[in-house]
Amino acid sequence: MRSSFFGNLEQGQVSGQFALQNPKMLRVHLDGDVLARQGAMVAFQGQMDFNYQGAGGIGKFIKKAVTGEGVPLMRVTGQGALYLAHNADDIHLFYLENEGITVNGENVLAYEPQLASNIQRVQGAGMAAGGLFNTTLHGTGWVAVTTHGAPVMLDASRAPTFADGQSAVAWSTSLQVGVNRTFKVGALIGRGSGEAAQLAFRGQGFVLVQASEGPTVPPHTHNN
Question: What InterPro entries does the record point to (predicted)?
Fold first, then answer.
């Protein structure tokens, strides 16, 4: 797998559509089509059509309806330069080479249409663990994910690795994933869960962890 995190996405190393215009904006050199988060287009140059992308079959439609996982997608078709962003979040690129990545649906910005997608349950993860269902992408092609704030990339092959379920953005599908629970009173060590539970990762691969669960809306009142 190639990524800007690994230092192996220098210009010319991987041909394809995706490049970072800046840390918060993706530039897609479009000559065909790409799947992107609905509403993520901020500008484009050239000739392009934008269409709603369905769930891709009744099975995926049911999974999205039942799990709440996945993100509304649009299919962009045409030629030119397409610029994508979401809430000024940081953007990170991955180039899959006949391999897979698991991504929180809320963090998917765009990916190439030849990648196979599915919704899978995180084994052993109860509702309190967050990230109960995630989106998996597999094949060869580009994936762009977003994080709220600068993330950390953890190498799970070095040691058993644990992350809060709502902070773990993406990880290698080669990893074994489970849940680690801390039953000590007052040990609410994670940011997102109501109980002390973290996703546990073991094996050869990486885990991308963001610094925040995302922007929050401050308390407010409505004036009549």
Answer: AIM24 (IPR002838), AIM24_sf (IPR036983), Trp_RNA-bd_attenuator-like_dom (IPR016031)
